[in-house]
Amino acid sequence: MIMQTLYKNFNLFDGLKPEIQKDVWFIVDSESGEIVKLGFNDAPDCEKVVDLKGKYVMPGLINSHVHLMMNPITNKLEYLSEAEVTFTALNNLKEALKAGVTYVRDCGCAFDVDIKLRRLQEEGQLGGTEIVPSGRPMCITGGHADFTEGIDGETTWGHLVDSSDEMRHAVRRQFKLGAKNIKVMATGGVMSATDQIDDTEFSVDELKTAVAEAHTKHMTVAAHAEGTQGIHNAIIAGVDSVEHGCLISDDDIDLIKEKEIYLTPTVIASYTIPTYGEGKLPSYMVDKARSFLDKFYARMKVVNKAGVKLAFGTDAGTPFNRFADTSKELELLTKVGASNAEVLLAATKNSAHLLRIDDKYGSIQEGKIADFLVLDHDPLADVKAVQQVDKGVYKKGVKVY
Predict the structure, then answer these.
(1) Is 298 within 8 Å of 304 (Cβ atoms)?
(2) Is 31:3 a contact under the CB 8 Å cutoff?
(3) pLDDT digits (tens, 9 = 90+) for 191-202
């Protein structure tokens, strides 16, 4: 049985430094899936050798904001059964892996299906793209994520939370089930019919309760926050990441940077709805998305100029936002002012740190898991290189695509 494989003769973006290193090799242990040795120039002898012929290697993409439960083509949001959610999630995981996404954080899944799938992964029954699960998100009655689920409408997508005490109980329930992240809906959203994106949907005290409970139990908190006041409340409460951040103020750009809170722009999610949704989605979705798009892009340019820490997420699963198109987000981030190096580091080192998996994932180093992509062209010179359809995808040192 071959226990080690040498990969040699490639150029490396390691996910740590904004540079390409030339003539690199590393050895992967087949049992652990870890890189046990990495070096340059002349490679040692090994049981199995793979010559990558001068191509470009980078870490697998870490998508820190997805919704495995959602089908971006049917766009069905309500009365989903648990079986349908699970079926959709498994298909999305396969599509994500082929696109080069080797780890995801699910930011809200009905029936806690993401938690249940993660448990199967931990038991060795389910391979492929790994999951940091959040389970059901926290939302107010009538707010973003108050969607009816189940064939008979027996549940909702989110926990309906209308006080600090209810928030505390809901977070503890998710902890009991095995969530690693808590998703809070701090503002309204594009996909909910009952609110506007600048509606504030949790008090600061409710958000602080979520953060305090989560942080004492080794969980992170991600805040869906699009409107200005809700973004401010989330930052004040001390969340780990602000998701979307569409209308963030100048003062809060300074504050989020000072507090070292991550911002996950998910530019592609706002791009796909007005681009492809006319006549196919409810008009309120298209109208809301269009109403703030220019302001959103302008705000992100200020964010990037200020040097706010970016995480990489796409909101995949939302309308026309396919898991297969994950790497398009890299290109869109450069259009709102981020450099190629910044977006690549967001999709590797930064997202791994946010998800608290950076001890083993997010970079190509000795002792890290060998999740990596093989590209024909230099992604640091042009991030569109990652959009290569037939790129090599390796999970734990094994080629899966």
Answers:
(1) no
(2) yes
(3) 999 999 999 999
Give the Cα separation of 218 and 214 in Å (integer). 6
> What residues have CB less than 8 Å from 385, skipping those under 6 apart?
56, 375, 376, 377, 378, 379
Per residue in 241-266, pLDDT tens? 999 999 999 999 999 999 999 999 99
Side-chain-facing half-sphere of 287: CA atoms under 13 Å: 7
Residues 386, 380: Cα–Cα separation, whole Å: 10
* Whole-Å CA distances, 60 to 99, 221, 259, 371: 10, 23, 28, 5
Distance, CA of 362 to CA of 352 (rounded, Å)? 5
| CA 271/CA 320 separation, integer angstroms | 10
How far is C-alpha 333 from the geometric centre of its chain's CA atoms? 14
The answer to whether 133 and 118 have CB atoms below 8 angstroms apart is: yes
Q: What 3-state DSSP class applies to 261?
A: coil
- Yes or no: say if 223 and 242 are a contact pair by the CB < 8 Å rule: yes
User: From the CB of residue 215, how many other CB atoms can be counted at a distance below 10 Å?
Assistant: 15
Q: Give CA–CA dist 11/27, Å, rounded.
A: 15
Q: How far is CA 269 from CA 67, 192, 295, 313, 317, in A?
A: 12, 14, 15, 10, 9
What is the Cα–Cα distance from 264 to 63, expressed in whole angstroms? Answer: 10
Which regions in the chain score pLDDT beneath 50? Answer: none
Q: Which residues pair with 26 in a beta bridge?
A: 7, 38
Give this prediction's pTM.
0.97
CA-CA-CA-CA torsion sign (88, 89, 91, 95): positive
Amino acid at 191: M
Distance of CA 133 to CAs 178, 182, 213, 355, Å? 8, 9, 17, 10
Question: Which one, of 187, 88, 56, 68, lies nearest residue 132 by Cα?
Answer: 68
Residue 371: phi and psi, rounded to 5, are -95, 115
Token pair, residue 401, equals 């695509």
